[in-house]
Amino acid sequence: MASELFLGAMSGTSLDGLDIALCDFSSTNILKASHFTPFPQELRQALFDLCHTDNIPLNDLYQTEQRYSRFCANAINAFLKQESINPSDLAALGLHGQTIRHEPNLSPAFTVQLGDWSLVAAETQITTIGDFRRKDVALGGQGAPLVPPFHKAIFSSTSSSRVIVNIGGISNVTILMPAAEPLGYDCGPGNALLDYWFARHHEGTFDTNGDWAKSGEINSTLLQRLLNDPFFMLPAPKSTGRELFNPEWLHSRLDDATVSLEPEEIQATLTELTAQSIAIAVKNHLNTGEVYVCGGGWKNQFLVERLKQALGESYTLASTEALGIHSDWVEACAFAWLAANTLHRQDSQQASTTGASRNAVLGGIYYP
């Protein structure tokens, strides 16, 4: 009997490293094992530079892609060894790749994920599925988010409305209502600006528990200036990334009116921006419901407190762990699920959230 074990591997806009999840979708408890491998600082910086550089030398682009791909292959092989798994035990690997540019609203539109899937397949000896987003863009879609159909398959309820909130570098929401197609879109910055501002003022890469942000006062003038960006008023489908919510975007809004603010006040205000943009998205679709959070943002206790305050008493708030998958591994599981769909030639039901002209089998298959 053919294996139905799938690996999912995801590195997102937080640029922190690679999440790996081993999934069995024939089981009640689909997540069987997981691991996180952080990027070496040199690779992290190279990826960051590609995300924030308009004119990229080809050698820099493709050498970074090779370093990233070998990093992924090595991390996956180490995971297999740790878990005593033979590559032949696996049906396939779903590897998202690293997004360095996402421009679905340009003409022509495009999205770029670094990844040499042929190399990863050869180095791991696993059938590797990647390049998930470009088919959707080719069909007129945003190419993102791709995970709402997975959220529907795994987290939906026949009796209650639920919202799945992923807080990575960018935040996105999936609205799940009984007997309805999922609605999902990016709603604004997640951790990306918080991590940038923290690293600018401290040693380290993130604000543990949001403690630094919590020490500052939220500035309502700056908050409103940030929320006035036209992106927040756009209707769905919509997606975004570091192309918009980047250091340049932030500094262009830190003018003379905010020059006297302490750095921790700006961090507190950026935290509130993430919380408010999520809450606005939720309230645009549901007056009440269950809200479940996944992604690194769940570890930011101050952000979770602010989100709970912004949502109000009409909504419950919990981690996706309450629904069976720890918040750290939801996206990696989603790309294992997308890989399973592709391997079985099943479309991924993505058009209702991306705006594509039709559903499609996503990604390419690369054999060892």
Automatic annotation (TrEMBL):
Pfam families: AnmK. One of its GO terms (molecular function) is kinase activity. Pathway: Cell wall biogenesis; peptidoglycan recycling; Amino-sugar metabolism; 1,6-anhydro-N-acetylmuramate degradation. GO terms for biological process: 1,6-anhydro-N-acetyl-beta-muramic acid catabolic process; amino sugar metabolic process; peptidoglycan turnover. Its EC number is 2.7.1.170. It catalyses: 1,6-anhydro-N-acetyl-beta-muramate + ATP + H2O = N-acetyl-D-muramate 6-phosphate + ADP + H(+). ATP binds at G12, T13, S14, L15, D16, G17, L18, D19. It is an enzyme of class 2 (transferase). Keywords: ATP-binding, Carbohydrate metabolism, Kinase, Nucleotide-binding, Transferase. Catalyzes the specific phosphorylation of 1,6-anhydro-N-acetylmuramic acid (anhMurNAc) with the simultaneous cleavage of the 1,6-anhydro ring, generating MurNAc-6-P. Is required for the utilization of anhMurNAc either imported from the medium or derived from its own cell wall murein, and thus plays a role in cell wall recycling. NCBIfam families: PRK09585.1-3 (NF007139). HAMAP family: AnhMurNAc_kinase (MF_01270). Belongs to the anhydro-N-acetylmuramic acid kinase family. This is Anhydro-N-acetylmuramic acid kinase. It comes from Litoribrevibacter albus. The lineage of its organism: Bacteria, Pseudomonadati, Pseudomonadota, Gammaproteobacteria, Oceanospirillales. The gene is anmK.
